[in-house]
Amino acid sequence: MTTKPAVLAEGLHKSYGKTHALRGLDLTVQAGTVLGVLGPNGAGKTTAVRILATLLTPDSGHAEVAGFDVVRQANKVRAAIGLAGQYAAVDEYLTGFENIEMVGRLYHVPRAACRRRADELLARFDLVEAGGRPVKTYSGGMRRRLDLAASLVVSPPVLFLDEPTTGLDPRSRLSMWEIISELVREGTTLLLTTQYLEEADQLADRIAVIDEGLVIAEGTADELKSRVGGDHLEIVVRKGGDLAAAARALRPHLCAEPDIVPELRRVGGPVPGGAALLPEVVRALDAAGVPLEDLSVRRPSLDDVFLALTGKKTSTDDVEKEAA
Amino acid sequence: MTTASVIAPAERAALTAGAGRHGKLYWALADAWVLCWRNIVQLPRMPELLVFSIIQPVMFVLLFRFVFGNAIQVPGGDYVNFLMAGIFVQTVAFGSVGTGIGLAEDLHKGIIDRFRSLPMARSAVLVGRTLSDIIRNGISVAAMLIVGLLVGFRPDNTWWAYLAAAGLLMLFSFAFSWISAVIGLSVKTVEAAQSGGFIWLFPLTFCSTAFVPLDQLPSWMQGFAEYQPVSVTVTAVRGLTMDYPVGNSAWLSLAWSIGILAVFVPFAVRRYRRAAAL
Hints:
The complex is a heterodimer of chains A (324) and B (278).
Chain A: E1 7-16, E2 19-29, E3 34-38, H1 45-52, E4 60-65, E5 68-69, H2 74-80, E6 81-84, H3 96-106, H4 111-124, H5 140-150, E7 158-162, H6 170-185, E8 189-194, H7 197-203, E9 206-211, E10 214-219, H8 221-227, E11 231-237, H9 243-250, E12 259-261, E13 266-271, H10 278-287, E14 292-298, H11 302-310
Parallel strand pairs in A: 3-8, 3-9, 6-7, 7-8
Antiparallel strand pairs in A: 1-2, 1-4, 4-5, 9-10, 11-13, 11-14, 12-13
Helix pairs in contact in A: 3-4
Chain B: H1 9-16, H2 24-42, H3 47-68, H4 79-95, H5 97-109, H6 111-116, H7 124-150, H8 159-186, H9 190-199, H10 201-206, H11 219-227, H12 229-241, H13 249-276
């Protein structure tokens, strides 16, 4: 095999009436890696996944998954992918076991092998006891685990997870993260959409930030963070009166004009050198005679990245529902 | 120790090796059967649906038999013998609403997305659903038959004729399920699939020869009532189970069912593609 990417999307467009869900989206996921597709509700994440999973045809553009064209060779793509969505598409009235068995048979796996896989996967996902109960008795976290288990019956080389932890409580989210990391360690190629920056940071090798149907930034978490200007230095002075002196002392060490927040007695700004700079900063403040209450250098969070790239917060409340 | 979630490529190839061994038609039928099985397994776990599909027709049998039975004059004298064919057809017509409700639910819950992401036959969701609904309707009809026999229904014909009646009923049920499928795939909510599925069936079943002989209906209604699908199927089933004239009703019923299928199967398939692609 050559190094053909496992997932490739080029110039995908998709509109619903006047709403342009995708406006020329490009994505690449190399085999065996994880791409986190990060964006707020309505950014086009779900639409992108639905196109790649052959549920939708793009208006224009081209996409390949596992080397097959998603439009012309849709059935070959389907045999090579697993999809687990944000709505946990499992049958409420079937048991966990029956759900996995059914999905296996629809992948055209012989019945006996489906049952063996169902047993293995239920054990793997900690659902052995629940396996014989109808899914309507399951908790949200259990449903997501079952949904993911069902998508793994044939151990597809490419997996799409559309917001796998949206709406889960923190404990269930952590357990999903663990499962997903393990899948990735075992070599599955994964495309994961999320609204949570923390999730992308945790699970993804590379992150594509999308907004209004376009990729607005792409790279590793570190690369994206450095795009907002490296590390951030913050000091809190003991007396408000010292703020001006502190700002004067800091100015030569910052890459930008110091940012003063009098209410918090805080001065800060981006620094070029990271933590190595700290001793110098401390000496300068000492020389200026400014007593400190707190001093920190922090890496920018992906929230800072998103804000810097789009001018918007990630977790908007007035989200329009994604057209999906 | 293997971790089960990801398996070796060789083993994976072995799992899916069967897929290439059979043709398209084989898998279309196999996939439809898997989904048909899924719907049948669900039945006893959805008590509310069973109540709908058994208690309601049984109630109709009892109400018509004991409340209206003496008020409606029928040829041959015994109303329950006249009534049962009408109740059978009404039941499978009402039962067909379940097809649309089931599809609307599957769409709503995203399970159709999962099916569409699998390498299975496109037709299987609709075919599996409509086939399983024949079976569900068959259960209701069987329950009604028993209650009918208990309250005086005495079928009087050959086994071949009973078989023909059952066949016509099944085909009629299958055809109406496809109409219901179109409704279920066209509405936005499960509730709408339910009420929208029923509403047009009331005039169709009551302005018919299901409960009242044709000559006792208002004269302006008779033209419609004589040839509409419910009436001709009722007349055929009545003639095939009792000593009533069949005439050409069996052929008309067959023609209606086939005609409905010819129109609504492609219509439903188109609706399915569009609804699922949103």
